[in-house]
Write a structure and sequence with these properties.
Blueprint (H helix, E strand, L loop, with lengths): L3 H20 L6 H25 L10 H8 L5 H9 L22 H19 L3
Helix pairs in contact: 1-2, 1-5, 2-3, 2-5
Length: 130
């Protein structure tokens, strides 16, 4: 049976894989790129929660990456941390366009790919810390 940290890693990896697949979509649009960014947010969120589990801290049901980073007690380079905190803008409480509570930025393939690449960098860093 996999350990709780292995389960969190598998779950986070699935989000990273989903973002990668969305970026390779044959017919992408701005929603495709936004969903890829959302999956990147989710991958980081789950990696921070994985660290919390590994350190026997209570995992609370919040999505604010800055707060989770503080609670996890982990370390990132200042540029990585700034990126992680900026990723909060891509969290969507609902993925239905008529229930969105805030306007989201329109992303291009180039923007979304950059987000994915930076997320992958943070993902690896967090993986090495737990």
């Amino acid at each position: 049976m996999p350990s709780p940290t292995e389960v969190w890693l598998e779950y986070a990896s699935a989000n990273l894989d989903a973002a990668d697949r969305l970026l390779k979509s044959p017919h992408p649009n701005s929603w495709t790129f936004l969903l890829a960014a959302w999956h990147c947010h989710q991958a980081i969120e789950k990696m921070l929660k994985r660290i919390m589990v590994a350190r026997e801290k209570e995992v609370i049901k919040i999505h604010d990456l800055g707060k989770l980073y503080s609670l996890a007690g982990t370390t990132l380079e200042s540029e990585q941390l700034a990126f992680v905190e900026k990723m909060n803008q891509y969290y969507m409480p609902s993925r239905y366009p008529d229930f969105l509570y805030k306007p989201f930025p329109k992303l291009s393939l180039e923007n979304a790919t950059s987000i994915f690449d930076r997320t992958t960098d943070v993902f690896v860093c967090l993986k090495n810390q737990s």
